Amino acid sequence: MDWSNLPDLGCVLLLIYAFASVSKRGQTLQSRIWLVGWILIAVHFAASMFVMKPGMIGGLSNWIELSALADAGVIFIWASLPYRQRSSSLWLLAGLLIVNTAYIGLAILSPIPYWILNLTAVMYCIVPLGVTLFTARQFQRPERWVNVALFSTLAVFLLVVQHRAGGPFLA
Fold it and tell me: Which pLDDT belongs to residue 26?
């Protein structure tokens, strides 16, 4: 067990407590979303303490650690959107959380067929583009297209890097 992450976990837990107690009086949807993001960061630090364990516990801890951090990033992006209450934003959030968790889990597993990892990497482009195009008649915002561009760039990066030596770690 890696105890070096315990101070980080303690700091994040104190931050969560402070954030929750301050936002309790004027709790809004946005403060709850930020709280979920911070809780995911705490999960990241808690799981990182078990990454060095051998076998399935270490692999599962690694998956939880990396997925929680990546999903916290997506939650924080979603919290900053002015139109997050729209159903299309919820679809986009759910799709990206699923793709993040699946890609990280598949990248950690070894060996798996290349086509599965490639398909999951391409989903970083397909999910945001699909939701954006599917809802384009009802709703158009430039921020949505920025997200499509950023996640499409991530998909291209993953496709280029993931099969090189050390690529899954870099991806």
Answer: 65
* 64, burial (CB in 10 Å: exposed 0-12, middle 13-18, buried 19+): buried
- The CA distance from 46 to 123, in Å, is 28
Backbone angles phi, psi at 28, to 5 degrees: -120, 175
CB 85 within 8 A of CB 40: no
Per-residue pLDDT tens digits for 79-122: 887 777 777 788 989 999 999 999 999 988 777 888 999 999 99
- Between the CA atoms of 33, 37, 40 and 45, what dihedral angle is there, to the nearest 10 degrees? -150
CA angle 51, 55, 61 (to 5 degrees): 30
In sequence order, what DSSP letters do the residues of the chain get, joined into one string?
A: --GGGHHHHHHHHHHHHHHHHHHTTT--HHHHHHHHHHHHHHHHHHHHTTTTSSTHHHHHHHHHHHHHHHHHHHHHHHHT-TTTTSHHHHHHHHHHHHHHHHHHHHHHSSS--HHHHHHHHHHHHHHHHHHHHHTTTT---HHHHHHHHHHHHHHHHHHHHTTSTTHHHH-
How distant is the alpha carbon of residue 46 from its chain centre?
16
Amino acid at 142: P
